[in-house]
Specification:
The chain is an alpha/beta fold. It has a single domain (about 5-190, about 220-274), classed as Divalent-metal-dependent TIM barrel enzymes (TIM Barrel, Alpha-Beta Barrel), CATH 3.20.20.150. It is about 40% helix and about 20% strand. The protein is built from 11 helices and 12 strands. It starts with a strand and ends with a helix. About 45% of the residues are buried.
């Protein structure tokens, strides 16, 4: 079994109240590493010290693209100080998505940030959602991105939930990027029917003007409690050369808590895959 980290966005409310205490709880659950989504007012030096104190590996960080565009050197320096190996573009706003007005500009910006990461010994990743699975001239926007930016400047962080929701088989898609898939997001879900409900991103705190998806139509679940085929996904991740898998649950399922959901995911993976 590959080493398992937790995306800290999964427990963001707890982290905001007690950053160090939440890191320690994640370590005590048995997670080997953490992927950050903000530092909650702490300096890189403080976060590095916290991770060292509890022996939790700072694997990577999700950093808003606009923040990296504004100060790529500063962002890379901060997460290099913490000890992260990877920095990921976590989300593309509507105007930056495939087919939108700033898509080409976004590709150029990612190339620039990727060079700064590479020159500092880090690797830039792109974390997808389902909207990158729109086709432009018969090709997925996500594939266009990876074809447009050299592999030495950008690697994948394939989110297995969103690949599935986007209409592709997660295992096959991971293998498509073998050798370029160092970090894979493990995310489970249930969805009623084959049609995607509208306003999926309201469920992760991103608003739009369409009708909200109900929890009955779509719900994030702990790993092993949804529809994903984890045996093939994990086998594909290893075969593709992944160094880490990262558990992420954007929202706890009904009646659950973020920390308990994180524990359920890890317990499932350890029980079934060692």
């Amino acid at each position: 079994m590959l080493p398992i980290a937790l995306q800290f966005y999964s427990v963001r409310d707890e982290a905001e109240k007690d950053f160090f205490g939440t890191l320690k709880k994640v370590k005590d659950m048995g997670y080997a590493g953490v992927e950050f989504a903000g530092l909650f007012g702490h300096s890189p030096e403080e976060v590095k010290k916290m991770c060292e104190e509890i022996a939790l590996i700072p694997v990577s960080a999700h950093v808003p693209l606009d923040e990296m565009i504004a100060d790529p050197e500063g962002v890379v320096k901060a997460y290099k100080t913490i000890g992260c190996r990877y920095i990921a573009v976590p989300y593309a706003t509507e105007e930056r998505r495939p087919g939108a007005e700033k898509f080409d500009e976004t590709i150029d910006a990612i190339k620039t940030i990727g060079k700064v990461c590479r020159d500092n010994g880090l690797t830039l990743l792109y974390h997808n959602h389902d909207f990158e699975f729109v086709k432009l001239d018969g090709e997925y926007g996500l594939d266009i991105l990876y074809k447009s930016v050299p592999a030495d400047l950008l690697q994948t962080e394939l989110d297995t939930c969103w690949v599935n929701v986007g209409g592709e088989n997660p295992s096959e898609y991971i293998l498509k990027y073998a050798g370029r898939a160092p970090v894979v997001h493990l995310k489970d879900f249930v969805m009623q029917g084959k049609e995607k409900p509208k306003k999926l991103y309201d469920l992760i705190g991103i608003d739009d003007e369409t009708e909200a998806a109900s929890e009955e139509a779509f719900s994030f679940k702990p790993v092993g409690y949804g529809v994903q085929d984890w045996e093939t996904i994990l086998a594909a991740s290893e075969k593709a050369g992944a160094a880490w898998v990262v558990v992420e649950q954007d929202q706890p399922d009904k009646g659950n808590t973020p920390l308990n959901a994180a524990k359920m995911s890890l317990d499932f993976l350890r029980k079934n895959f060692g």
